[in-house]
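Need tokens for this chain, all 248 residues.
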Amino acid sequence: MALIRSIIHLLWMATTVMPYALLIMLGTLFGVRGLPLYRIAAAWLSLCISGARVLLGIRARVSGMENLPQGEHDGAILLVKHQSTYETFLMPTIMPHPLAYVFKKELLYVPFFGWAIGRLDMIHIDRSQRAQAFNKVVQQGKDLLAKGIWIIMFPEGTRIERGQKGTYKTGGTRLAIETGAPVVPIAVTSAKVWGRRAFVKRPGVVDVSIGKPISSVGREAEELMQEVEAWIEAEMRRLDPEAYPAVH
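Here are the structure tokens for all 248 residues:
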């Protein structure tokens, strides 16, 4: 049954992405930019998350929303634990500000999905050109934060297996220091139900825990990321203790 449900949900996403992507691309032809296009994309993501709840039995349980910056013009860099596609789709549906993802440019070539995100206020980078890529992130990041758009990054760089920890890279904290925006650490237990490369998904609850903002002013990137890493990994152990071996 789980296999059948997973196939149906995949078909649901593949079918629904096409009209939403076409709407975004048509919008750009008529000069539509910014927030209206983002809302179209967020509507599709909400459809995917609703589909996961109905078809797969996966639901999100979010805590710590009160920790998010409350001011209309307050910026933030969200640094999120990355275990599956689920949190990538979920975050824009729960956040009070539009989000801009930092992602590798190869995603732009994915039919419909990539064509659409290339027309949104996102930051796509060429990982083979590290210095130029980071300069682009900083410049675009400043512009987006000035518009009230929050930046979201996965500091481990890729999806990580349940119970494992990747290498936390300092790109997010470097950006925060350059822009003066605080970082917000977020722990996510999506791998309990939607594994890193799993085709078959299982019903269950994905816990999303949002930490308090950490000021980037006067900080060093490495030291700030160590604080982010320590909070996220400790929170992961609290939320999903079965995934981590007991320490004696």
